[in-house]
Amino acid sequence: MECHRTVSLVEVVVVLLLLWPALSSAWAPVSRTITVDSKGRGDFRSIQSAVNLVPDGNREWVRIHVRAGRYREKVTIPKEKGYILLEGEGHSSTEIYFDDHAHGSTDRLMRRGADAMQTYETATFSVHANDFVARDIAFTNTHNSVNKSRVTQALAALVDGERIAFHRCAFSGFEDTLCDNTGRHYFRECVIKGGVDFIFGYARSIYDGCTLVSNIPRRYGRGRAGWVTAHAGQHAGDPGGFVFKGGELRGTGRQYLGRAWNKYATVVYYHVNMSSVVVPRGWAPWHAGNETNDALFAEVGCTGPGSDMARRVPWAKHLTEAEVEKFVDMSFMDDGWLSKQP
Fold this sequence. Notes:
CATH topology: Pectate Lyase C-like
CATH class: Mainly Beta
Strand content: 25-35%
CATH architecture: 3 Solenoid
Number of helices: 5
Mean pLDDT: 89
Low-confidence stretches: 1-7, 9-25
Helix content: 10-25%
Structural class: mainly beta
CATH superfamily: Single-stranded right-handed beta-helix, Pectin lyase-like
Number of strands: 27
Shape: globular
């Protein structure tokens, strides 16, 4: 025999009060949605037009929903336009692409720093604002996609702000695909394709479950290898660094795990599955020269044929699980800001 009891208003209020701490820490709400459709069935045909509609000094999350399609344009989120959620319909369906590139030798441009005008102005997508989120969208620079005999810097994206997250996005280029320049950033389940320094900058970022894909041709430069990362620290003790947590590194050609843009570079691979694309020495000193003691290049718990550390450079760091915890814990770059995003 079933018993049925009417729930009183008092009981409902008590339950809501008990749940209030959890409810109050829920994801942030979105105040409005702007739709972009290349076929003219939305509010705008171009993504930049939608961005321009967001008022300067914005403090409420605005969703820019980009319907499936390929959008040939350069898109910039200026620093005055925070709290934007850029949302596609899957990185294999929604893509922003352009073919801008730098002029001049790679070495000269890199020595000028990530802020060299010719470098960062090549980005297909740039975000300078704090508090930004992107989901399910692709950013591509097509300049070096066919002819790699005379490649130059051609950024897919420049990320230059605080509290920025990318979820299930794709970044595609060849040389300098992703300029992870400054600030605290989180990349979750993203795909990043490139050949030379395809993730570089000064930022403090966790790449969580991301797929890194080398697209160096098999006959590129008579067996010449590329570099997945080129990180630089501002000074000794700088909290920045690139941390790859889970995920995999695969593709074609040969890749060093990274090279030191300066002597304070910090890159950690943690439980990453590495294919045989990895060069046995693993790391290169580059601008650190002989001053490699301060560079922190480490691998912990990685798997796959490329994870064999027997022939790594002698100055690579050997961290224990306890020592690597401060890098792989979310507190490395998150003090609660991720839970305040939509």
